[in-house]
Amino acid sequence: MKKLFVFLLSITVVVLCLSCEKDDPSVLSGDQSAMGEVGVTVESSSVEIAGVSDASATVITLKSGVSSFSGSATVKNEFLKNLLANIPGITITGDKVSATNMEYKITKEGFECKTGPGAGILVKYGSSVGDTYKIGTTGQVRTVVAKTGVDDYPYGFYLIKVIKVEETPSYLKSSAGVTKITYIANHKFGLVGVLATFDDETTAEFPIYTSVEN
Question: What whole-number distance in Å separates Cα of residue 196 and Cα of residue 214?
Fold first, then answer.
């Protein structure tokens, strides 16, 4: 009887551990999203926002669940240009910002950056307010700050439900002038916006449109 009890206890512990691993907010799982497939394009508004225009990127390769993007934008905003300057894969020539080999894991459960000092989960759609995701080895985190469950965020011709994840980009040496970045996402449309907050408390929100959906 004692042996049977120990056996059942062991099974219970294993099941609990597996459940904890599955629900671990620092782990991104889920099936491959169509948004990470080769040829998918990502664009922002055609109208200049806070000195940024003509922003677009394309998935060039997909290997072992990691999508590599290349893209470019015109960036006249010096704060944002400085923010981007020390990120691996970013090249800046005048106001032209180019990106190559920017790697992301994109599943039906969320987005994870695999490149540079900001590597780590950007969003998990199933997260709750207060959940955090580690940012590389910096000791800093991204924090889920909003998830209303209500169709209240304007996106194209729709109102959609979103989850918002906030970070302080101080892990980047060139972050002066930008105090906060908020990632805005939806389970169907993926990453739908990025909000930058500057040290004078002004903000700039950049919509993101992907050529496919989850």
Answer: 25
